[in-house]
Each structure stands twice: as C-alpha cells, then as structure tokens.
Amino acid sequence: MMDWTTPECRVFHRLLSRHARLYTEMVTTGAIIHGDRDRHLKFDPVEHPVALQLGGSDPAALAIAARAGEDYGYDEINLNCGCPSDRVQNGQFGACLMAEPQRVAEGVAAMLAAVRIPVTVKCRLGIDDLDSDEHLHRFIRTVAAAGCEVFIVHARKAWLQGLSPKQNREVPPLQYERVFALREAFPGLTLVLNGGITQLEDAHRLLNQHPIDGVMLGRSAYQEPWLLAAVDNLLFADQTQPRPLRSEVVDQLLVRVGEMDKAGTPARHLIRHILGLYNGQPGAKQWRRRLSQPIPPGLGQAAVADALALVTHAQQLHDERNDSLSA
After folding, report:
1. Distance (Å, rounded) from C-alpha 90 to C-alpha 126?
2. Contact 54, 27 (CB under 8 A)
3. What is the pLDDT of residues 4-37, one digit of tens each?
C-alpha cells in the first residue's frame, strides 16, 4: 500500500506477529533501475518473511528489478496486477495488466529466469467489462503456464474509468465464491484471498471452511494493527509464545525510536504508523493526540514515553471507575 507499508511500518508490524508475511509498498521497476536502490529496497532483517511488490510490465526491467530485490534479501517478488490508480495505469502496470495476460506471463517468466526466490502475482477478478470467469481463468492459466504458482486475488473487479482507487476498494461487490471456484479449476496453485477481511475471526473461518490457502489483510491491519497480535496463535496455530501486551510492544518501540533519535532520523517516519495501537482502549484518544503533535528532532522517544504515560493514567482511571461501580 503506497506510503503505508514502509520499512518503519513493517518493523512495527513484525513486533505484533512473527509469522505473517509482510509486503512492501509497490515499487516501480524504473525507481529501482534509475533511482536510489537503498532508499527503495533496504529493509531491516527483522522484517522476514518479507516480499517486494513490483510495479512494471517490461520483462527485461522486471527481471533487473527482481534480481535487485533478491540481492537485497527479499523472500518473494510479487507483481502487482491489481492497483487501479491513474498513475499506475499511465505507467502501463497495475490492474490494467489484467487485460494482457500474455504480457504478464512474459514478465513472470523473465523474473523467474533471473531469481531463485518465488515470484507471485496479485490481481483482481477482472477490469471494466473484462470480468467474466472465462477471462479470469484465461489470465490465471496463462500466467501459471509461465511458472507462477501463487496468486493473491482481490475478490473484486476494478473499474479503471469512473471510479477512484478508494471507490475501487468499496464499490465493486466482493465475489469470494469466484476465488473459491479457482481451486477446482487450478488445484495445483496456491490461492490467497484478499478484500473486505476486517476481523481475524473471519479470516480463520474463511481458511477453515473454504478452499483457499491464505488470506491477505490490507487496510484493516494498518488501521487496527492490534489485529496482528493474534495472528500467530489463531492463524498459524503457534502457541509457543503468549500474545504480546500493548505495553510490551511500546517498550520495544521506545528502543527503536531512541535509535532513530540518535541517528538523526525523524521519529515521525515510525510514529505515524503506530497511532492506532490503542484503538478501542482507554487512553486511545490521548495516545493519538500526543503522537500527532509536532515532534522536535531527537525527542521522538520522549514523545512516545509521554503518550504511554497518558494511556497508563487513562487506564488507571478507567479501572478505578469500574471498581467503584462494582463495590
């Protein structure tokens, strides 16, 4: 998600789940080939497993970018064939590639020839009037024949004309059953469902009751990050470690932000991603308000500590009120 799943965001999310696979923002092949590679590709080793999502359509450029991603240590290269923004369309990549399965197949083949890590595709059910099951199956079949074995399917089509990217996440109806039907048509593929999943309980139910291999959470995980704290126990059946406490996560964030202060890195790069950590809890408003204020250079750790103190005080008042009501 552009400007959302930055390296700082992914470090924060990794504090909540050890097993969830994290995805970068979409990075264009041009940015990697002609830009500052460290800026676009460097990441913290704690992020593993982490996938690099690419935007592009030229096979040679995709191969170069994929090889660069592998060299930087990514665990997967993911080709975006689902983003509907005008800027992406003008660059001839993203959702508009749903109309060109052969072109996508050539790009996938070029990347697979260049790297040894998995190459996957994120797509839609279709675009505009190209949204029949016949077209979707032809797209999957053509790209799979090039060697792609994993498809992350946003269970909506995209309207490239007339709807904004935000509307394309909400207006076209979700059609999960069409993703489920891909299992019968393509039993050898790994199919991941994306779109409209806002609760882990729903993700768990979908995985257990329907023929899919995984689920992808997008904005729900960003806006309600505490969802991720239950992922390891509920979806990965890992009971080796208890679910973390929010205060324990903040303790680790304090260390991270302190390191950023010392390095002269603006703490805002991380802090803007943690505003929703206490959503639904006493003190959530105070937490957001304090961390939304301007933070002078070198004082990021102090700001997070202040916000934690405000939350702690609000929680104590909440507990005291509950105790007095119970007495």
Report:
1. 18
2. yes
3. 899 999 999 999 999 999 999 999 999 999 999 9
Q: Which amino acid is at 125?
A: L
What letter represents residue 66's amino acid?
A
C-beta separation of 12 from 257 below 8 A: no
**Burial (CB count <10 Å: 0-12, 13-18, 19+), residue 276:** middle
Q: How would DSSP label each residue in 78-138?
A: EEEE----HHHHHTT-GGGGGG-HHHHHHHHHHHHHH-SS-EEEEEES-BTTB-SHHHHHH
Which residue numbers are catalytic?
83
**54: nearest Cα among 89, 21, 103, 93:** 93
Q: Are 171 and 195 in contact (CB under 8 A)?
A: no
- Which segments within the chain are labelled E, that is strand? 22-28, 50-55, 76-81, 119-124, 150-154, 190-194, 214-216
Nearest 5°: the CA angle 130, 135, 137 is: 145
Six token digits for residue 216: 């992808």
Which two structure tokens, joined as six digits, stand for 165?
């990217």
- Residue 272 is given by DSSP the state T
- Please tell me whether the overall predicted TM-score, pTM, comes out greater than 0.85 for this model: yes
Three-state helix/strand/coil letters over 205-220: HHHHHCCCCEEECCHH
